[in-house]
Amino acid sequence: MSAGEHFSSRWGLVLATLGMAVGTGNIWRFPRVVATNDGGSFLIAWVVFLLIWSVPLMMVEFAFGKRSRRGCIGAFATLAGRGRAWMGGWVALTATCIMFYYSVVSGWCLRYLGASLTGELARQDPGALWDGFAGSGAAALTHALALGLAFAVVWFGVRGIERVARVLIPTLAVLVAVLAVRAVTLPGAERGLEFMFTPRWETLAKPSIWLEALTQNAWDTGAGWGLILTYAIYMRLREDVPLNAFLIGFGNNSMSLLAGIMVLCTVFAIHPGARAEIVGAGNEGLTFVWMPHLFAEMPGGAFFMVLFFLALSFAALTSLISMLELATRVLIDFGFQRRRALGWVGAAGLVFGLPSALWMPVFRNQDWVWSVGLAASGLFFALAARRFGVERLRREVIAEGADLPIGRWWTFLVSVVIPVEAVALIGWWLWASYENDPAGWLNPLGGYTVGAVLVQGAVALAALAAANRWLARWSLATPAPASGGEGGG
Amino acid sequence: MSLAAIATMAAVCGLVWGGFAVLLGRALSRERARRGSPEGGGRVSR
């Protein structure tokens, strides 16, 4: 059945891929990271890395999917050789492990959407609600609900994904824009804008600002996750790559910018004195404890709180859908029928997501380990492209049907700059983790330790390397679907 | 707001949102041209 699956038009592909890219990281992480990294200076670095990490890597992913018409493992085996199937396995494993706990996050968003709709959030202290909910059986139930919703969409294949994206993504954009407009029209909101956009030139000399900006681009654009590769399998035959990659990168960061304005203007207008405490509360603290507090004090806040959690839920679900599709696609390449493959992926997601739903230390551990894993995924994409020939990829795949000419600068970025960025990112994260806990940095069971990354990463790499031959054989066992056709436009 | 903040806001928002708008416009015109061509399955206007 996969042979006939394709996006009906460019807009179907772009909206589905934007849905993948725009997730909770845009809404709950970006504003917090801007606020803790000197605002305007960070934004300058963030725009630079959009251009020298996210967009070039998105093009690599699009090219891999378009050329191979296979999921992560099959694409790496096709383009970089059967001996590199394990690299695709790493990309798929990392995204799938993230799916296990991202479903939990999506469930939190749905729970808070329900609580804002019923007025429960207005009646109860948000902090107490969060403390009673996170890590409880109720979180396991909402994890199952979120996974069930994403499952229902992927059940209908690419057409299901496209139909949902066509509704949710424009709605999400409108919701975030409405919230941003509401925030900037609050008395005192200009202090938030001033804080967000004032550059402190001397901080541009700090490496941490640049590494935080690279981290944000690596996490919230979806570049290097294998998700774009998966959607690119269903591109039309002569579909453009570069313009779509730029469109999605800029579209994603446009949403981040709106979310940053929305959150920071709200914070500065309502609780300027507590801003350090609010942005220092972490992703969950900011979103599920402080934002309900702030909305409660805003005129019409109950209504805008519903919009906020609706936007967050849409962002989370469209990203979760893409993660489910990635793992399903790998199994389809192995010879499974779509719905059987999805059944296995859904069952695995339900079971392996439970520990993160029930125990917050497990959630934090998994979030840390596989976030580092993502930088390695980006590195593997660049290395596999080098193996195939980056310039050859540009000439044979990216230039074909391109609506935007791409020069040799892209070849240089993928061959040299992206590998350096990925290694710097991994090194910096591990060093920061060591500095955070010099006594227990090797503890493999720690929430945020080098040991946790090394042990889980080494086990995964060893297993993938041992299974490389089978991964290559299975992923190439079935004929690749023929390029998805031309679509109706 | 300070001049530096206004200038940075104009530059960052202009680049990101303006860039997105320009790219979207280009994609729209390309798709329109494709639909109008015989290759794209559309009618050729005479």
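Chain A has one domain: 2-475.
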